[in-house]
Design brief:
The protein is mainly alpha-helical and 229 residues long. Helices cover 72% and strands 4% of the residues.
């Protein structure tokens, strides 16, 4: 009975979504691997309906691929795919910054900056744990301030794919520290009203992310060995 109520149904679907996302990021579900609703529902002890909803969301986000009369597969990405993702991302996200620049809540930005600076001073394990959600919040803050539903839809779907690269890269302490430092520099430029510098720093930040993602191309192509380094 409980599973038939929408409020619980949505919660289950969100939980399955996050669980499958984590499985993709951690290499438990490999690029190109076939999955089924029944296997997931059996493993989680839930009905197939919330599993179906989660799979549909992941397909929209570009993390799963639905093939008619064949099944559902974890998406593979070639190096060319990754390059195109970042080509589009750098254009859309700098556009979002342009839209948002005069509309930012400076108090909110200052609070976000303080959170990032606090994270920089944390011990390794906690820094690695906290950097990824701060990264997501940083980019979401720019996108939300742009106040463009169309841009939010387009870039939001793209960033769902980028989150996989970010989640894997955030296990590297050096890369995590560099990302935090970049975020602070971009926020400082915005808070000082320097649009040109903020835009340039954001572009450079995304290009670093591109380089890191291209370094993972073999894993996302489905040709790498087991595990994620």
């Amino acid at each position: 009975m409980r599973a038939s109520r929408p409020i619980h149904h949505d919660s289950l679907s969100d939980g399955v979504y996050q669980g499958l996302f984590d499985d993709i990021v951690n290499g438990r579900l490999r690029p190109g691997q076939r999955i089924t609703e029944q296997e997931i529902s059996d493993a989680r002890g839930i009905s197939r309906a919330p599993v179906r909803e989660a799979i549909a969301k992941l397909a929209v986000d570009g993390l799963l691929r639905l093939v008619p009369r064949s099944g559902c597969y974890v998406c593979t990405l070639s190096e060319r795919d990754i390059q195109q993702i970042f080509d589009i991302r750098v254009r859309l996200e700098t556009l979002a910054l342009d839209y948002a620049f005069d509309a930012f809540d400076r108090v909110q930005l200052a609070k976000l900056r303080a959170k990032i600076v606090a994270c920089q001073g944390r011990a390794e394990r906690r820094l690695l744990r906290d950097e990824e959600p701060l990264d997501t919040l940083f980019h979401a803050t720019i996108l939300n301030a742009a106040a463009s539903p169309l841009l939010q839809d387009l870039l939001g779907k793209l960033l769902a794919r980028v989150r996989v690269f970010q989640a894997i890269g955030s296990r590297d302490l050096g890369k995590a520290r560099d990302a935090l430092e970049n975020h602070v520099a971009i926020l400082d430029a915005i808070l000082s009203g320097d649009r040109r510098t903020a835009r340039q720093l954001l572009q450079e930040h995304i290009e670093v992310a591109r380089k890191n993602a291209v370094g993972m191309a073999e894993f996302f192509s489905g040709n790498a060995g087991s595990g994620v380094s």
